[in-house]
Design brief:
By secondary structure, the chain is mainly β. The chain contains no helices and six strands. It has a six-stranded antiparallel β-barrel. The protein is globular, with a radius of gyration of 16 Å. InterPro entries: Phage_SPP1_head-tail_adaptor, SSP1_head-tail_sf. It comes from Rhizobium setariae. This is Phage head closure protein.
Length: 109
């Protein structure tokens, strides 16, 4: 098995990991908000962009790969925040199955 080498100096983006928090609204529903679970260093790689036409407007979807050190705190459905930028986590995997890194495929909101 080939190990993936990443220089730790490439993890230059400070991201907040956020998890969804549901608060009852008093009428049988919930209000969804997000709370910071952890802060971590990451490497953000742009992957691509697609344009969708919705009615008379176009919507651009930008995807990225975010590399981080392995953590059991992260799961699909959470999101990363960098300032005003939000990245929804779609999938994650260990690129060389060594338990050192995780690659998260994300969509920028």
């Amino acid at each position: 098995m080939l190990l993936t080498f990443i220089d730790a100096g490439q993890l230059t983006a400070r991201l907040d990991l956020e998890s969804a928090v549901e608060t009852p609204d008093g009428q049988g529903g919930v209000t969804l908000s997000h709370a910071v679970t952890a802060s971590l260093w990451a490497r953000i790689e742009p992957v691509g962009a697609e344009i969708e036409e919705l009615g008379h407007t176009e919507r651009q979807t930008v995807t990225h790969r975010i590399w981080i050190r392995h953590s059991d705190l992260i799961a699909p459905g959470q999101r990363f925040r960098k300032g005003t930028r939000i990245f929804d986590i779609r999938t994650l995997h260990d690129p060389d199955e060594s338990g050192r890194y995780l690659v998260c495929r994300v969509t920028e909101v």
